[in-house]
Amino acid sequence: MAAAGSWTADKDGSRESEAGGGVRQYNPYKDLQIPYQTIYNLPTSPEFLFQEESIAQRRSWGENLTYYTGCGYLVGSVGGASKGLFEAVRAAEGGDTLKLRVNRILNTSGQTGRRIGNRLGVIGLMYAGLESGMVLTRDTDDWVNSVVAGLGTGALFKAASGPRSAAVAGALGGLMVGAAVAAKQVAKRYVPI
């Protein structure tokens, strides 16, 4: 005995209720001669318009530029706003009203977040430009491009402070990017995803 509301399919694709009544439902796919049960099985791998796009396993220079600049600005803004919040809470005086404290917190958080966000956004912009330039120049995509872009970004960002500051910032930028590349390789190898 079939459960109420169950259906059986005929060989022509129409369905008939087993509960009774002989109601036949319309099947729009029966004349198409296609396996309509699998029509919505979509591929999970990325699809590319051109074969050259499938060979390159990286973002384009425009996507790279947008990604690093946006991430830098977002992280800098959130971190700067947090730093501004702590500074404003620490600078609060005993006789301040609630309005004055809230105003100080909003002003300090906004100013510090904007300043640090802009700095990290510019660093992301320079890094993305240098890394894309290195990939274009060397015609390979490996860790050397990332480390050289980190060196160049640090040196360019502090170039106005003098050659010694630029050299130190370049070395720090190269070390930070090298550590990030090494951590990414370790994570790819040992962390199951």
Structure notes:
There is one protein chain. The protein is mainly alpha-helical and 193 residues long. The longest helix has 41 residues, at 98-138. It has a 3-stranded antiparallel sheet with strand order 1-2-3, with no helix packed on it. It contains 5 helices and 3 strands, in the order βββααααα. Helix content is 62%, strand content 4%. A hairpin with a 5-residue loop joins β1 (7-9) and β2 (15-17). The model has no long low-confidence stretch (mean pLDDT 83). The radius of gyration is 30 Å and the shape is flat. It folds into 2 domains: 1-38, no CATH class; 61-173, no CATH class.
Share in helix:
55-70%
Overall SS class: mainly alpha
What is the 3D shape? flat
* Unreliable residue stretches: none
Q: In percent, how much strand structure appears in the residues?
A: under 5%
Strand order in the largest sheet: 1-2-3
Biased composition (Basic and acidic residues): 9-18
Membrane topology: Multi-pass membrane protein
Subcellular location: Membrane
Region (Disordered): 1-24
Quick overview:
The chain is built from five helices and three strands; from the N terminus they run βββααααα. The chain is flat, with a radius of gyration of 30 Å.
Indicate the topology.
Layout: E1 7-9, E2 15-17, E3 24-25, H1 51-55, H2 61-90, H3 98-138, H4 143-157, H5 163-190
Antiparallel strand pairs: 1-2, 2-3
Helix pairs in contact: 2-3, 3-4, 4-5
List keywords for this structure.
3 strands, three-stranded antiparallel beta sheet, 2 domains, 193 residues, 4% strand, flat, 5 helices, mainly alpha, protein transmembrane transporter activity
